[in-house]
Design brief:
It contains nine helices and seven strands. It has 249 residues and is α/β, with parallel strands linked by helices. The protein starts with 8 loop residues before the first strand and ends in a 7-residue tail after the last strand.
Length: 249
């Protein structure tokens, strides 16, 4: 995807931690210059950028609040100055509130849903400013197995994740005839800081639902993201399930 003398650029939202950080490392290993987006995990994002400085493309940091459209306008303007292009957009950032429906208030729901709105708006901006002008690109959404199975206590989160999959199917149709591929990766239960905090009995219950008998790791998700970013040239509007057999899709 790179032009002569230029290194392709990948932007990963929520790139400082967990699956996002693994995606940044993997894409850097594929030769991308990586934009590490963060909102509050500045220390971790800076540490990752320092780590990736030794890679051929290196990395740069970009701070923005996905819940704030004005902040995203600023992010895209900063991207233009810092990189001049975006070849791959990985919409990884998310937000969750764990609470039963009857205990959740509108503010909590809106906080989860507003990240989805930000993902939509950022994708629109990146498409208009970079990918449509260049005529190529890859957009990869990180959704979740719970967008297909549901999960008690996470109704807004499951709604958002299911919506990300519908988003790629619809946008792929809108981009028909263009060399811009839009897909999603739906992880199962992955060993991250979030799952590390789960009580032991809940972990055992989850493991009992996974045919492979273990949680996945962030690198296994990043491998699939890298495949979609660099190969996968005949995959469009698809959701790739990476869940150890928990949900066959």
């Amino acid at each position: 995807m790179s032009e002569a003398g230029e290194r392709p650029v990948a932007l990963v939202t929520g790139g400082g931690t967990g699956i996002g950080a693994a995606c940044c490392r993997r894409l850097a290993s594929e030769g991308f210059r990586v934009g590490i987006h963060y909102r509050s995990s500045e220390e971790k994002a800076k540490k990752l950028a320092d780590e990736l400085a030794a890679t051929p493309g290196g990395a740069f940091l970009i701070k923005a609040d996905l819940m704030d459209p004005a902040s995203l306008d600023g992010l895209v303007a900063e991207l233009k100055d810092a990189a001049g292009r975006v070849d791959v957009l990985v919409n990884n950032a998310g937000y969750n509130v764990n609470a039963p429906m009857l205990a959740m208030n509108l503010e909590q729901y809106d906080a989860v849903a507003s990240v989805a709105r930000g993902t939509w708006y950022l994708t629109k901006l990146v498409l208009r400013r970079f990918m449509l002008r260049k005529g190529t690109g890859r957009i990869i959404n990180i959704s979740s197995v719970v967008g297909h199975t549901g999960n008690a206590g996470q109704i807004p989160y499951t709604m958002v994740k299911a919506g990300l999959d519908a988003f790629v199917k619809s946008l792929a149709q809108e981009l028909a005839g263009r060399e811009i591929l839009v897909n999603a990766v739906a992880p199962g239960f992955i060993d991250t800081d979030m799952t590390e905090e789960l009580p032991a009995e809940i972990k055992q219950s989850i493991l009992g639902r996974i045919p492979l008998g273990r949680m996945g790791n962030a690198e296994e998700i990043a491998d699939v993201v890298a495949f979609l970013a660099t190969r996968g040239s005949y995959i469009q509007g698809s959701v790739l399930h990476v869940n150890g057999g928990m949900y066959g899709g």
